[in-house]
Known about the structure:
transmembrane helix, transmembrane, CHP03716_TM_YkoY, DUF475 domain-containing protein
Amino acid sequence: xxxxxTYASFFDWEMWINxxxxxxxxxxIGTLIVMEGxxxxxxxxxxxxxxxxxxxxxxxxxxFYGLLGAYFxxxxxxxxxxYLIKLTWVKVLGAAYLAWLAFDHFFRRPxxxxxxxxxxxxxxxxxLFGPFWGTVVSVELMDIAFSVDSILAAFGVSEQVWILFVxxxxxxxxxxxxxxxxxxxITKIPELESAAFIxxxxxxxxxxxxxxxxxxxxxxxxxxLAAIFGGxxxxxxxxxxxxxxxxxx
Length: 249
């Protein structure tokens, strides 16, 4: 019954109005969008690689169907997640997983140069559904895999249904539409990628503290957010200046 009430709240217009007119809600939504963009920009390129064997017109169609599937998955995941995230053991696992993501980013195995992900055209999914629909299914599955981290992190930011939904939908749209911009931004300021994972670590702590009834206020969270990304940009300029001085010595 509680799960049905959660999905019903998606169509609560009063909640729509409250969320869309609340500056704090837009701050949280903006956080989700930026986090999605920074963490998933390279994922959009993986999806592009997955559809490159199709004719140009079918590539766009496959990615569009994949986008619709991503939205539907977000709808299901947020509805179920709002119910599950209230369970203590789910929060413990979620906080631990986010902490592992941050740890893995800073201590993971270096990528081998030229290492790529390719779609096996003769894979079982392609054989079952054919080249086009097999690719669509593969894109859907990859979207789900990519979404797990973002959705879990989103629950660490807020547990309000519409904040999660609007932030998730806009985040997915941004990831697909302006992935190139985020990739160029990360290439230009590499520290931003690490900043995103530091934010993931902070969200993990925030989620873990909530288990003990300790809730991080929005003001504190936004201050930490500004410090993380401001620090990343400042560090980038410091390193760039230091390298320039070293080169001129």
